[in-house]
Design a protein that fits this description.
It is a multi-pass membrane protein. This is Sensor domain-containing phosphodiesterase. The chain has 4 domains: 181 residues; 120 residues; 140 residues, Alpha-Beta Plaits, CATH 3.30.70; 199 residues, TIM Barrel, CATH 3.20.20. The chain is built from 27 helices and 19 strands. An 8-stranded mixed barrel has the order 10-11-13-14-15-16-17-18, surrounded by 4 helices. The protein has a 5-stranded mixed beta sheet with strand order 4-5-3-8-9, sandwiched between helices. Strands 1-2 form a two-stranded antiparallel ribbon. A hairpin with a 4-residue loop joins β4 and β5. α2 runs parallel beside α6. The longest helix has 38 residues. The termini are far apart.
């Protein structure tokens, strides 16, 4: 194929090459045979060289004597081979990559666009200067320092740089007909997304009119000056194409424009005029191609950034934005919600790597059941979502549930199989309130954790909807209370057997009707919607402010404040607490921070570091609800605290339950070994108080000791 392509296209290239006659000899404005030889090498590599040599020899025999033709052909092939060898060594296996690739652009421009024309002009000039080829038959003078040599040199440069992409694509299409459709698809991809068909039509019409005008003006000598001024309009026109339509479209059109424009060029009165025009076109080519390649590269980077924004970089799964886009593209879908709350507790023990790996492997575990275009999506926290095609039948949901039931993750030698709640619903676009829909699915998945079967959002769930509305109403009450100071604090005295009493501060919410809302109702909502730090900061600020204001009447008062354990892991918790202590001039020993043992956050390394730092500051740490959490006794090996609060479920009926009595007694023994003080909660009778004192309990708390009262009344009493 390279042989007959060279023989077929060489006469055509010679015919399209633009040649003019000046007083001192002929010149070329475009020299397309060199473009053809480079394009053949870029497609066929060294296999194209025999065909190139034969085609060149056939061309030069018609121009020179056989000896001169053979010499010229030999010089041409030698220069071409040297440049191609250098380019091949540098480019390696990427030698045949199509034009427009930014990484190859600079060196390809050097070897093919600059070094090859320069070397060929140098070699051809030597043959003429040494009289090896007669000057009358050549386009070069014996004196190389002439304007004619410059114009010919620029013509070869322009042909190698501007026309080569067109020739390369033409020959590739001859070799592989399917290449045309692939390049057409690539051409469409390179066009900016905002380009409309009307814009392309307007640009093509304008370019056609402009090129037609230029050809008419340059076909007559007296109009060439006006034509050269009109030629300046080509640059902004092609820059428009480079910015909007991409490199491939621009390179093809620019090559055709140059070939068509030069065909009607007549000889000017002054040779310098041609040199200036040729220089302008060469510089414009470099500018246009550079901007076109940069524009395509920029759009590709933007597209990659948009694609990357749809994938979570840590979990490596599509995210919520990708789910929203996919739901909008499909006619109908089934949306499944997977809720895995135990992962939160496990990740606090084993680290964030567990959560990441669990989600990845769970998604891979579900992959065999998924059809094309169905995907597992990552949601914030410990949830996942599945988008299934169309309205999936109940049997398929049951299959997914059965596969999830059999899934377990082996982590550091231990099998982990947390419960997974499944809910689902059928959706059709547009899905305008996806976060709200996911919230409802999350509630249904919570129900699934207890029913142990997938729950449908479309089924009759009036009770659940009522619970959601009540929860949202309660969330609004909490937010309004924070904004309008509708929280109040109650103080309950805790009796110390050595006379070192202190007060426990209890938070109450006053709703819009003026009624008190107990913590058991609103604190779960606070935790679910991430308002724990806002609540804790409010309590700390008001508690320390009360100590500051009541310094005269209560000079040595101590107060216990409940802190959500999750806030111990906040990066700025310690600095914020230190700021509040300094602001209200309160000593750290006056503050007892009560943390729930059941939360599990105190097990984490970050939580333990914060607890140790708080104790070093002088604050005392009390662990609340001890005995009801997971592995309570085991935690005492690593837990550093000053006080243990025995959960009231063991205390209030300890006299009637021997088991509870033994639990309380064993907690006391273990706490003494750790040199921790003990607080008994829910002391409801004097008989229980007497029994606890006999066990050596340090502090008693309950209605039998003191009932809660508003904090403001404490300073007045």
């Amino acid at each position: 194929m390279p042989l007959w392509l060279a023989l077929l296209l060489m006469p055509l290239s010679s015919l399209l090459s633009v040649k003019l006659s000046l007083p001192d000899g002929p010149i070329y404005l475009l020299f397309l045979p060199i473009t053809l030889t480079v394009a053949l090498l870029m497609v066929f590599d060294w296999a194209a060289l025999p065909g190139i040599a034969l085609a060149l020899l056939w061309r030069y025999i018609a121009l020179f004597s056989p000896g001169h033709a053979l010499l010229t052909c030999t010089v041409f092939i030698c220069g071409l081979s040297i440049c191609w060898l250098g380019y091949r060594i540098w480019a390696g296996r990427h030698w045949g990559a199509e034009p427009g690739i930014l990484q190859l652009g600079v060196m390809r421009l050097f070897w093919i666009g600059f070094f090859l024309p320069t070397l060929l002009v140098f070699l051809m000039q030597i043959t003429v200067t040494l009289n090896a080829v007669p000057a009358s038959s050549s386009i070069f003078n014996r004196n190389p320092l002439t304007l004619r040599t410059l114009i010919n040199y620029q013509a070869i440069l322009l042909s190698c740089v501007a026309i080569m992409p067109f020739y390369y694509m033409l020959i590739r299409c001859f070799r592989h007909p399917g290449y045309f459709s692939r390049q057409f698809g690539l051409l469409r991809q390179q066009i900016a997304d905002s380009v409309s068909a009307a814009e392309i039509k307007i640009w093509l019409i304008w370019l056609f009119l402009l090129v037609t005008l230029l050809m008419v003006l340059h076909s007559r000598l007296e109009n060439q000056l006006v034509g050269d001024f009109a030629l300046l309009l080509l640059l902004p026109t092609m820059l428009w194409s480079a910015v909007r339509f991409g490199f491939l479209f621009t390179a093809l059109v620019w090559a055709l424009v140059l070939i068509a424009f030069y065909q009607f060029r007549v000889q000017p009165d002054i040779s310098l005029h041609l040199a200036v025009v040729s220089t302008n076109l060469l510089v414009w080519t470099l500018i246009i191609y550079f901007i076109a390649v940069s524009g395509v590269r920029q759009r590709q980077l933007i597209q990659k950034s948009r694609q990357a924004a749809l994938i979570d970089p840590i979990i490596d799964l599509p995210n919520l934005r990708a789910l929203k886009n996919m739901l909008a593209q499909q006619a109908s879908s089934t949306l499944c919600f997977l809720r895995i709350p135990d992962i939160d507790r496990l990740s606090r023990t084993w680290g964030l790597d567990l959560r990441i790996e669990y989600k990845r492997r769970l998604a891979a575990h579900l992959q065999p059941l998924l059809q094309p275009n169905e995907t597992v999506y990552h949601l914030p926290g410990f949830d996942l979502a599945l988008r299934l095609n169309k309205s999936t039948h109940e049997e398929r949901i049951q299959q997914i549930g059965a596969r999830l039931d059999g899934y377990s993750l082996r982590w550091k030698g231990l099998p982990l199989q947390p419960d997974i709640g499944i809910s689902y619903c059928h959706v059709v676009p547009p899905v305008n309130h996806l976060p709200g829909l996911l919230g409802e699915l999350s509630e249904m998945a919570e129900v699934s954790l207890h029913s142990h079967q997938p729950e449908s959002l479309q089924q009759d769930n009036t009770g659940l909807q009522r619970q959601i509305k009540e929860k949202l109403a309660l969330l609004n009450e909490v937010q309004q209370a924070l904004d309008n100071e509708r929280f109040i604090m109650m103080a309950q005295r805790i009796e110390g057997l050595r006379g070192d009493d202190y007060h426990d501060l209890l938070l109450r919410l006053i709703d819009a009707r003026g009624e008190q809302v107990l913590p058991e109702r609103f604190l779960p909502v606070v935790q679910e919607f991430g308002l724990t730090w806002e609540i804790d900061r409010w309590v700390l600020n008001h508690a320390l402010g009360f100590i500051d204001r009541s310094r005269a009447r209560l000079p040595a008062a101590r107060f216990a404040v409940n802190i959500h354990a999750v806030n111990l892991c906040r990066p700025f918790f310690l600095s914020e607490l230190e700021r509040l202590l300094k602001q209200h001039q309160v000593e750290p020993w006056q503050l007892i921070l009560v943390i729930s043992e059941a939360s599990g956050a105190v097990e984490s390394l970050a939580g333990q570091r914060t607890v140790n730092r708080l104790r070093q500051m002088g604050c005392r740490i009390a662990i609340e609800h001890f005995g009801v959490g997971y592995a309570s006794y085991l935690q005492l090996n690593t837990l550093q605290a000053d006080m243990l609060k025995i959960d009231g479920s063991f205390v209030h009926n300890m006299l009637s339950s021997p088991l509870n009595y033994q639990i309380v007694e064993s907690i006391c023994r273990v706490a003494r070994l750790k040199r921790m003080q003990i607080v008994a909660e829910s002391v409801e009778s004097q008989a229980v108080a007497t029994a606890l004192r006999a066990l050596g309990i340090d502090y008693l708390q309950g209605d039998a000791i003191s009932e809660p009262q508003p904090l403001t009344m404490l300073a007045d009493s």
